[in-house]
Design a protein that fits this description.
6% of the residues lie in helices and 44% in strands. By secondary structure, it is mainly beta. The chain has a single domain, classed as SH3 type barrels (Roll). Strands 4-3-2-1-5 form a five-stranded antiparallel sheet, with no helix packed on it. A hairpin with a 5-residue loop joins strand 2 and strand 3. The radius of gyration is 11 Å and the shape is globular. It holds the Pfam family Tsr0524-like. It comes from Acaryochloris thomasi RCC1774. This is Cytochrome b6-f complex subunit PetP. InterPro entries: Tsr0524-like.
C-alpha cells in the first residue's frame, strides 16, 4: 500500500471496534503507516466523512 492510494475496507480481522467495523465496504485513501503491536505495519485510511482509522493491509483491497 502506498500513501495516496485508494482502498476499500474488505473486512475486519482482529479488532472488535465498532468504529472500524462500520467502515467495511467503504472507500478511503491511505494517509499514513502505523506500527502495530510488533507483528507488522498497519495503514491509516482517511474517509470522506473526515474520519480515519487504521487497518492491516490484508483487511484492505487496493485500487489503482
Amino acid at each position: 500500500m502506498k500513501i495516496g492510494q485508494k482502498v476499500r475496507v474488505a473486512r475486519i480481522l482482529d479488532r472488535l471496534s465498532g468504529d472500524a467495523s462500520d467502515k467495511v465496504g467503504q472507500m478511503g485513501v491511505v494517509k499514513d503507516y502505523k506500527m502495530t503491536d510488533g507483528s507488522g505495519v498497519g495503514v491509516v485510511v482517511a474517509f470522506n466523512d473526515n474520519s480515519s482509522s487504521w487497518f492491516f493491509e490484508d483487511e484492505l483491497e487496493g485500487r489503482r
